[in-house]
Write a structure and sequence with these properties.
The protein is α/β, with parallel strands linked by helices. It has 11 helices and 14 strands.
Length: 331
């Protein structure tokens, strides 16, 4: 099924969207516009407010202040209409453990009103798309976390929506499963679906998103394409890693006398912007050799999304665990 967009108007619009839990501000005056047929990613660490934003857009939680609309429908006053055009896959698989993967998908299709024959056809397509065939007849409680996730994502597409919200879609997936999900996401957007993605994975936002919003403490700190965000913190830089801690101070003194530097003592690394004089790495290496400074590595590299997040929020973006499944106030 192909979804046809009939307008270029934004399909998701938020204005001053805010959510309080008592005195705790989970989302603070969040503004966003999402173009049809695009992939927009909310990128931020645990507790940044990503899931709370998703829950408000999906009509699962009402805003404390501000407004949000999905395909022109207000998330508070037109909640039923919002749900008719939107599909949400949360962080945790919502499946029946004592049914097989195939049975779970068939159940979802029948609940959505499809006939028995149509359900089988739809499910076969989803099993192929998400590479579920090898465990289609296994009980969900007996498969791996990554396999459960693939079934959960497939269930969200029994009916192809105009807008698909994926909240941390690849958390816990192995590299193969992650690539399957990424490929499916690209196919969906190609067919006209608009994707709203929350993630902690830098490479995921970098690889998929047309527009990235950096979230920190419930606020949007910056937004733009991946290249836009990287450009906010400057051009290329040279990273020089000392062979041991005793050489680090000499390295700092040598480079610091001529350039504005940043120092990471834990990694024994000194970083400098890459002006014209430093772009010849061989000459830098020669200068270090003349001073007797032993180095492990010298590299010229562009800023990353992690660099951008660190520069804009003062903290590194970690991506090891999903947001906890605790009370929403913890988010």
């Amino acid at each position: 099924m192909t979804v046809h967009q009939t307008t270029d108007e934004p399909v998701v619009v938020t204005r001053g969207l805010t959510k309080h839990f008592g005195d705790f501000v989970a989302v603070d005056h969040f503004d966003l516009e999402v173009k049809p047929g695009s992939i927009v990613s909310l990128l931020g660490p645990n507790g940044a407010g990503k899931t709370t934003i998703v829950r408000m857009l999906a009509t699962l939680s009402e805003p404390t202040a501000g407004t949000a609309s999905v395909c022109g429908f207000d998330v508070v006053h037109d909640a039923d209409k919002v749900r008719s055009v939107l599909s949400l896959t949360g962080q945790f698989a919502a499946l029946e453990d004592n049914l097989t993967a195939q049975e779970n998908l068939l159940l979802m299709a029948r609940l959505r009103g499809y006939s028995k024959r149509s359900s089988k056809k739809i499910v076969e397509g989803l099993i192929d798309r998400f590479d579920i065939g090898e465990f289609r007849d296994k009980l969900v409680k007996s498969v791996s976390g990554g396999q459960r996730r693939r079934v959960d994502l497939a269930a969200s597409l029994v009916v192809q929506p105009r807008i698909l919200i994926l909240d941390e879609p690849t958390t816990g997936l192995d590299p193969r499963s992650r690539q399957v999900v990424w490929s499916t996401i690209r196919d969906l957007v190609g067919s006209g679906v608009t994707l709203f993605l929350t993630t902690q994975y830098l490479e995921e936002a970098d690889a998929l998103a047309d527009h990235i919003v950096l979230i920190d403490h419930g606020r949007a700190t910056a937004a733009g394409s991946s290249n836009d965000l990287k450009a906010l913190i400057g051009d290329q830089r040279v990273d020089v890693t000392a062979a041991d801690a005793s050489d680090l101070d000499t390295l700092i003194q040598m480079l610091g006398s001529a350039f504005e530097i940043s120092v990471d003592r834990d990694r024994r690394m000194v970083s400098v912007p890459a002006p014209h004089e430093l772009k010849d790495l061989a000459s830098v290496t020669a200068a270090l050799d003349q001073r007797g400074v032993a180095i492990d590595e010298i590299a010229l590299r562009r800023p990353t999304l992690d660099d951008a997040f660190l520069a804009l929020t003062g903290q590194a973006l970690t991506s090891s665990e999903p947001e906890s499944n605790q009370e929403e106030v913890a988010r």
